[in-house]
């Protein structure tokens, strides 16, 4: 990692004004046919090794900071991430939403907590990207007990124009702040403006270690809403995905992986009834799927693309399975990584390992205690 991080930093610094200028208007990834067209936003497989991704889901940083309990949970979450990063040494990390619990953050600037959540990855020089969940920009909810007879709690609102009205930190502010302090390691992007307030809509290309070979995979990130707007993938996002994927991968030759936060309704259709039995693979099935509010055609588009191998979501802390969908692609939950948020199921991280030539995706769950379970092949032969 060290070796190319300087290169990375220079490229990022040089192209920063470019990225922010075109990123907002709709950043276009160009599939590199020659080395000259390579973009700094692309990822690359290291020669002789598979490309490994760790997914950190539902960290929920920043809860209950006015108690001892809250800050302790954040320390615990940093420990989970550190353990996973040190035992798996992934090439890339995906923060799968609900990085912070904004509705429980009693200060103006949630970026402080966002930054803490990113720090174990950044400190190790590992590149990452983030997408938004339903808690990341939700507005602050005053705890009822703050209005008890003892009066207003001993919480100091930082001096600000809004006084104590906790406007919260917007999706745009969170992502801009993340990019600013990322040492060039953040691959997060601000999606096309016409999709706002849905912000984390973008694509990353994983290139082969061999420059003459075609790209290994396309990673699509979508903002499934929640917080400041409804929990859906909108028609506009579906159209964006169609256009984007047809342009980047018209002949469906490049395998595609999809990441968003809130499960689509299709997850309900494949959910195991009680026990997780084959062909599903996983270890906890403790909740009902809490799906998006509507299905606007995204799944139809995905199942129609033979290049789409799997979708990864978080949101349900008590589910960690993968199930096949119509024998075409896999629908997977990540694994609750954070000590914040509801539920006390042991924490862990879903790991993806992508191999090129032939293309394969393996996945498993790495737990905080070091154990590994739920290994599954996510490619059909
Ligand atoms: C919010 O916190 C971050 C540190 O994580 C800091 O860089 C930024 O300037 C702060 N923003 C405001 C508006 O205070
Ligand atoms: C499915 O794919 C076919 C051929 O690629 C295309 O003509 C059709 O419009 C697609 N349907 C949907 C729902 O995307
Ligand atoms: C995955 O597939 C490989 C062969 O490609 C096989 O060796 C391995 O046992 C499979 N793993 C699981 C968990 O099915």
From TrEMBL:
Residues in the signal sequence: 1-21
Any Pfam family matching the protein: Metallophos
Highest taxon, organism lineage: Eukaryota
Keywords, alphabetical: Signal
Entry keyword Signal: yes
Calcineurin-like phosphoesterase domain residues: 51-317
InterPro entries: Calcineurin-like_PHP (IPR004843), Metallo-depent_PP-like (IPR029052), PAP14/16/28/29 (IPR011230)
Record PANTHER family: METALLOPHOSPHOESTERASE DOMAIN-CONTAINING PROTEIN, PHOSPHATASE DCR2-RELATED-RELATED
Full protein name: Probable inactive purple acid phosphatase 16
Organism ancestry: Eukaryota, Viridiplantae, Streptophyta, Embryophyta, Tracheophyta
